[in-house]
Amino acid sequence: MHLQTVNSNVRGKVHMFPQRRMRRVRTRNVQPLLCETTLTKNDLVAPLFVDETTTTPKPIGSMPGQFRYPVEGISGIAGKLWERGIRAVLLFGIPAHKDDAATSAYDSEGIVQQAVRRIKAAYPDMVVITDVCACEYTSHGHCGIVGGIRSGEKDLLNDESLLLMNRIAISHAEAGADIVAPSCMLDGMVRSIRNALDDEGYEDVLIMSYSTKFSSALYGPFREAAESGFSFGDRSTYQMNPANGREAYLESRLDLEEGADILMVKPAGPYLDVLAEIATLGLPVAGYQVSGEYSMIKAAAERGWIKEKETVLETLTCIKRAGADLIITYFAYDVCGWL
Ligand code: PBG
Ligand code: ZN
């Protein structure tokens, strides 16, 4: 088919134009009718930081507009989100005590466990998702138990750390979490947690796996927010190389086989090719617009270099267009005011 055609109509008039005029579908009144992707409040998950070391909301310097909340205030915050139309939150905890074995992470009186109970008591229909990882709770800042020597230094021990993840997941389920979200990128974490939950009678608790999680510089602001930076090495011996697409697909496929209910691609924005491919696996897929994606937009908007609302709505719509069924974003509250 040629874009440029020469036609003559019945009156013998000669046209030197493309017949497939794409601008026909872009008139202002027709456009909404043909829109393929619409962002709704039901797509959104709001991350929340609960901090055991504070009694007042603490602003997060690297993430303007975001706070670490004391547990006493958490149902109030959940209420504000609920009133806006948000139906799902993802909880991260900052404990008062850290040690090598992340013991605060599975304490029934731990910060996340308390927050879950308070939110579920006040808003039983709020979907409460918990991040299952150890990096906020370990003194070294890695996502599980470290030891041995790999790649020249101490490293995350896989199978030893799985037992820790089982305990964390069970403690969250016991507190009333609807969905547990392991983010440690350990091999076998989904099957291990599924078995543990089922053994304890929590077969209705979903697992949203951070199934394809890249070792990304875009988590930088979060590590200040959650005090989860590491004291040695980095996370590239367990999180994925951003350069690898086939491996990214395989990571998520394995988690499907292990029994995950929801898969995830994280970060979302720079990895939409990966997200689109993983969506073909058939499970629901979450896209996580991470702290760095948030802070870049905030910083540029603060300088007047981009328009915040337009940029946020564009980036989130694109994540949905690529195949995300749910989107975890620090903009969730603001977006609900715009939709
Ligand atoms: C913990 C965890 C991280 C994020 C979510 N869960 C940090 C990391 O892996 O270092 C990042 C979230 C964000 O940047 O918004 N494993
Ligand atoms: Zn972690």
List its traits.
single chain; 339 residues; alpha/beta; eleven-stranded mixed sheet; two-stranded antiparallel sheet; 15 strands; globular; binds ligand PBG; binds zinc ion
Give structural notes.
- By secondary structure, the protein is α/β, with parallel strands linked by helices.
- A hairpin with a 5-residue loop joins β1 (7-8) and β2.
- α1 crosses α2.
- The strands form three sheets. Strands 3, 4, 5, 6, 7, 10, 11, 12, 13, 14 and 15 form an eleven-stranded mixed beta sheet that branches. Strands 1-2 form a two-stranded antiparallel ribbon. Strands 8-9 form a two-stranded antiparallel ribbon.
- The longest helix has 18 residues, at 158-175.
- It is 34% helix and 18% strand.
- The model has no long low-confidence stretch (mean pLDDT 95).
- The protein has helices spanning 74-84, 111-122, 158-175, 189-199, 220-225, 245-258, 272-279, 291-302, 308-322, 332-338, and strands spanning 7-8, 14-15, 44-51, 58-59, 67-69, 88-94, 127-132, 146-150, 153-156, 179-182, 206-207, 212-213, 263-266, 285-289, 326-329.
- The protein contains ten helices and 15 strands.
- The structure holds ligand PBG and zinc ion.
- Zinc ion binds next to loops.
